[in-house]
Write a structure and sequence with these properties.
About 40% of the residues lie in helices and about 20% in strands. By secondary structure, the chain is an alpha/beta fold. The strands form three sheets. Strands 9-14-13-10-11-12 form a six-stranded mixed sheet, sandwiched between helices. A five-stranded mixed sheet has the order 3-2-1-4-8, sandwiched between helices. The chain has a three-stranded antiparallel sheet with strand order 5-6-7.
Amino acid sequence: MNVIAGDIGGTKTILAVYTTEGGPRAPLAEKSYPSRHYETFEAIVREFLDDTRLHAERACLGVAGPVVTGRARVTNLTWVVDASVLRSEFGWSDVILLNDMQSVGCAIPVLRDEDRFTLNEGISVPGGSIAVLAPGTGLGEGFLSFHDGAYRAFPSEGGHAAFAPVGPLQIGLLAHMNAQGYDHVSVERVCSGRLGIPNLYAYLKTTGLEEPDWLAAELAAADDPTPVILRAAQGEGRQAELAAAVLDLFVLILGAEAGNLALKVLATGGVYLAGGISPRILGELQRPGFLEALRAKGRFREVLTVMPVHVILDPGAGLLGAAACGLAEAQRGRRGPV
């Protein structure tokens, strides 16, 4: 049986066809499309099917947006992805819609050793819950729980929960954000690529750290300041103390939030960092500050210290997870949208 899996995002959409015999690592075909060039998701599917000349009976799609009763609006696009519409349009017997963090979560049980980097070996409890954080354009959060012999992934909007500052520098950051007119300062607003890193940069400039002229010029010319700041932080070319301080602060906030989520779901099965930023800052995550921030939870420090912590290195984890979920459900003969 053939299953179409997809990773649907505001920037790009990736579709692939898999077989129940071949499994989630052996697509018959895989193609990537620039999302903003298409008016609807259905237009991409039609082009993909025409390009590949392949037929599928079912689909499992990860969507960058909340999924409610088989329907999702893609964040940063006008698209609405509707399972019932897709079944009717393409004759699929079943369509599963997953939040993008669910897709990443579904990939975790099928990751290979080379797909992850371990920051803390810890002691993994069989069947223990797993926490997932994905700093990228935003801050995605999710978790997995074990039931009936298998893990099931769940989405969360925890990235939009309130930022809880730790120490004078972060308290100053919260005050700075409040002064900019943000009554509610989410974790995502200070711990993500699109919002967080530029906000940290603007705040740290106010603390007296000097912005070099060359960096100011590069930022003024850039459509997206985040890659410029990260390059300057890591010394790719010239290094700037201000940019390095931004990355240091980002890592501490990410560590604290990882510890928060780990406690909320009691992640004795481990904590996983996904998203586009985590593999990029692997060196900084290996410094003592990240794990110390994760563990600094008072009486529960010991619990957090023994939790395994990993970084997902596979950039296609979302598609892998959608494929794994779709194939598993096809083998069970499941019907109906999630």
